[in-house]
Amino acid sequence: MITTADLQGHWRRDWIRAPDFEDTTTRVHWLQAGALFADLRVPADLPALQEGCLADLDAATLQSLLRAEGFAGEITVARGQCTWHRAINWQGAVARPDVGAMWFDGDVLIEDGVHADYREAWLAEPPTAPLRGHRIAWGDMTGVLVESDDRFLLGIGLAPIDRHVRDTFISFYALGTWDGVQGIAELATDPFAMGKPVLDRANDSFVWHAPLFTGGTESRPLMKVR
């Protein structure tokens, strides 16, 4: 039976299937370190944006970007079922608990929805340095940073309540790799952040270079929450 230990590491979704629906192209990454997790899901067909800022975009493009998903928090595992307790959620408040019945089909981790009719297949990414999970905060924002010597997934935001479109982009999720002390985003809920440094690390502390809706970044030291 699946335990928390079986879920440790970096998982990439291969596909999801539900009645009248299948998706094999959305880029989905889930990093698990101990009980802490961060998850980022970016549709493959989102517009490629490099110059400018979110404030320059029209309403239709912003709505398109909101098809991304991100959430982070802590898991519990009991009787082969994993519950993802979302401390933060890019899409706002969730309607029902996020619970999956987990089992292995060979090397593939299968997740069957408990409160929704779906099946997902997860593949383990090649082993890297051990993952470390941190609860983090800045101001009234909270989140999770899962990182190793090689990779990171950052999720930080406001509590998951209903909010306006612009307020959603205050939250931020990014998957990336370390280039020395800089964390370079490969995927992010803000497309203008992709390919750019979004984190700095020094010893056991981190600075988040938060993308601003109106352009530019603000450097914010992240506090670890015990």
Structure in words:
With 226 residues, the chain is mainly β. The protein folds into 2 domains: 4-124, Lipocalin (Beta Barrel), CATH 2.40.128.280; 132-224. It has 2 helices and 17 strands. It has helices spanning 59-65, 165-168, and strands spanning 9-18, 21-23, 27-33, 36-42, 69-78, 81-89, 98-105, 108-113, 119-124, 132-138, 141-147, 151-157, 172-179, 182-188, 197-202, 205-211, 217-224. A hairpin with a 5-residue loop joins strand 16 and strand 17 (217-224). The longest helix is centred in the first third of the chain and has 7 residues, at 59-65. 33% of the residues are buried.
How do you describe this structure in short?
With 226 residues, the chain is mainly beta. It contains two helices and 17 strands. Strands 1-3-4-5-6-7-8-9 form an eight-stranded antiparallel beta barrel. An eight-stranded antiparallel beta barrel has the order 10-11-12-13-14-15-16-17.
What are the defining features of this structure?
mainly beta; 17 strands; 226 residues
Q: In total, how many domains does the architecture comprise?
A: 2
Radius of gyration (CA) equals 17 Å
Mean pLDDT: 93
Second rung of CATH, namely the architecture of the largest domain: Beta Barrel
| Strand ordering within the main sheet | 1-3-4-5-6-7-8-9
What is the CATH level 1 assignment of the largest domain? Mainly Beta
Unreliable stretches (pLDDT < 50, length at least 5) are none
Strand content: over 45%
Helix content: under 10%
N-to-C series of helices and strands? EEEEHEEEEEEEEHEEEEE
Question: Mind summarizing the main beta sheet?
Answer: 8 strands, antiparallel, barrel
Say what the CATH topology of the largest domain is. Lipocalin
Helical segment count: 2
Let me know the number of strands: 17
Shape: globular
What is the terminal-to-terminal distance? 30 Å
Structural class by helix and strand composition? mainly beta
